[in-house]
Design goal:
The complex is a heterotrimer. By secondary structure, chain A is mainly α. Chain A has 13 helices and two strands, in the order αααααββαααααααα. Chain B is an alpha/beta fold. Chain B has a single domain, classed as 3-Layer(aba) Sandwich (Rossmann fold), CATH 3.40.50.300. Chain B contains eight helices and nine strands. In chain B, helix 3 packs across helix 4 and helix 4 runs parallel beside helix 5. The longest helix of chain B is centred in the last third of the chain and has 16 residues. Chain B is globular, with a radius of gyration of 18 Å. Chain C is globular, with a radius of gyration of 19 Å. Classes of the chains: A mainly alpha, B alpha/beta, C mainly alpha. Chains A and B meet through helix 7, helix 8 and helix 12 of A and strand 5 and helix 2 of B.
Chain lengths: ~290, ~240, ~280
Amino acid sequence: MDELLLIITASLVAIPAAIIGVFLQLKKSVMIGDAISHAVLPGIVIAYLVAGTMDSNVVVFGAAIAGFSTTLLIDFFHTRLAIQKDAAIGTASTFLFSLGVLLLALFFGQNTELDQECVLYGAIETSVIEQYVTGEYIIGTRAIFQLLPLNIVVIILVFKGLNVWKSWLFSDSFTTMLGFNVSTWRILLLLLLSLHAVLSFESVGAVMLIGLLVLPGATALLIAKSLKSTLILAVSVALIACVSGVLIGFQLNISIAPVIILSNSFLFLITIIYSKKHKRHLNFTKN
Amino acid sequence: MNCIEITNLSVNYDNQLALKNVNLTIDSGQMIAIIGQNGSGKSTLIKAILGLIPAQFEKVLFFGQQLAQVRSQVTYIPQRESIDWDFPISVYEVVEMGRLNPNKWWKKTGQMDKQLIHEALEKVGMLSEASKQIGELSGGQQQRVFLARALVQNTSLLIMDEPFSGVDIRSQKVIFDVLTELKNAGKTILIVHHDLSTVAAHFDHVIVLKNELLAFGETEKVFQSTIIEKAFGIPLNLSKND
Amino acid sequence: MIDDLSILYLFIGISFISVTSGVIGVFNFLQKKALVGDAVAHAVLPGIIIAYLLSGVRVSWILLLGAVIAGFLTLSVITLLLKHSKLKQDSVIALVMISFFAFGLSLLSYVQLQPTLSQAGLSDFLFGKVTSLTENDLDLFIFICSLLLIVIRLFFKRIIAIVFDSTFMRFKGYSMVKWTFFLNLITIIIVAIGIQAVGVVLMSALLILPVTTAKQLTNKRFNLMVWTIFFSISSAIIGTFISLNSSQLPTGPLISMVLCCGLFITVSLKWFISKTQANG
């Protein structure tokens, strides 16, 4: 039963990550994604300090906005201080992340539920403790009920607006010319990402998240030929990795989040070897 | 009617003047080439009037109005280098983008849209390649796909940035044929052009830039050795192998 | 127990590490490769842990060797993937980095389960802990850092030329393969050393922040080096000092926070001075 709950929780973390990750990669903003997922940390720590929990929606949104403000900080470094892009991203995320770790060490010490290793890979294992039960049936955990609405919003937004996302990802200037406000779509994506980083923090931490963002999409991009198939493939890869990651982690009794990432890496490796062989084969038939 | 009206347009790049005090009034129903050396501000001019880069100006009007009011009448085909050819997108999907409606982002492509896309692909001779990934095409074919995307938008003004760089002869002919047809239907076409040898045959007006407006007018009047020499630093007849 | 003399030695050791990182960071910065150091820092974790598991002892030079091997493996995999797939550079760097790091964390998680192995304090590598460094560690680090600094001094002009204009240097007959290898090598070595003091997660701060701050003050090559070294040393000393006085604060975030404060102070001072000059 615990395995099943963990697989569901992991999947609810991995599905939006896979989708947002595909978008980040096609928009060449992977490092911004990495920065945001690091930078939600101080927001989360302050939220814990103030409210003592992550249950309240206000706290979640507050932390998410704090994470989103990283992009403003990066822009400030890049445009006002004329720091080159890569260094600006590195500086902003380093600053906010170390601020978060220090706050954590100062106010929570070493051995609380919000400890430093949780920052690295979360504690998805503990999510099964807070179960919601009706009658005799377990209907979910707090983590599942927190992540579910985000999943629904992301999936609806992506599939309803797929053509616009496609156009925006493919060409900023053309989409502007059509009359869309491209910065709205960019802000929407980054806001969803920071919201996701906050909600999935307890499960996978701030550092592992980039793996869930990049790996499924990268695997899909090796073989897919349209945005839709990229998204479907990325989500499938993410789901397979979640199932195998949870089961293997459980079996070996080690932290689950890194094992999920490793399963993703393994799937990527298989796919790239397969696609290389396949391509060579295709070239032969062409000649 | 005036298609484009530009008053006192200037653009700065990194504190360097890229374009100085450009004043232009372009009539509808023409095919116009923008020529000049590399770095003379050709692409800068069109990006600036389309609001894609920051610029200072007194007035930039399309059909007598601000761009925002007449967006649906203007389209733009960017330079090849600005496009990620590995992007997972098919030829059909690229053309489909032209039918997006900014006021109804959730809307699916309708039956009439599909008809238009089909016709446009046929016109540029790319219907048989519709399901291919955009990077699998040759440079000329890619350019034809972008022309098809502009066609489905059905706009009165078409602006293109270097559409013929890296394009084969056959694609060049297809593109010029379609453009001539558009012009005859009363549309205006503004093209950043680098191949001086084809200017006289295809364009009825020419804009010559060298970080400012050197000359603008009918091709036979503007396209003379003195002006070209001033713009490029070389006599006209040497520039054929560009 | 730590006595005054060994504390002094600790400060000297940390300063050496931080100056060498700062200087190598300048090269990474000028090549616009600021994020590569971050990737390498995360990715060497499995190397360290495997080295520990194989040797069974926590000896600096063995762990260092493990880290250097893992660093090279990381960069080779990145190069290989860039060559053989259409993925963009930042995706490839991120995915290789996180795969290696996740592997390292899984190993760490396994090590901590074993009662015989868990005492090694390998988790100090995550956020850094200066107090866990022994005098033998410091001997080794100071020796390697001095070596690196001497080599850099010898080849300084050529490195700078390559970093600024690789096309021209290739034209002049320099082998880019060799020089890229050399630049990667010094980055990997300093990262492998640095993480033992400041941890993998914030190692990149030691590389990029000093030069980023120095760049705010000057564009001249010589002054840039001087300011970089100044910011590296001062923040390392202040950070270590605070870290020694409050044992629960990890060293890595402390030093990187001091570096960030340095940047903010520099920027505000610069702004303030330009403002008063404009008014007066």
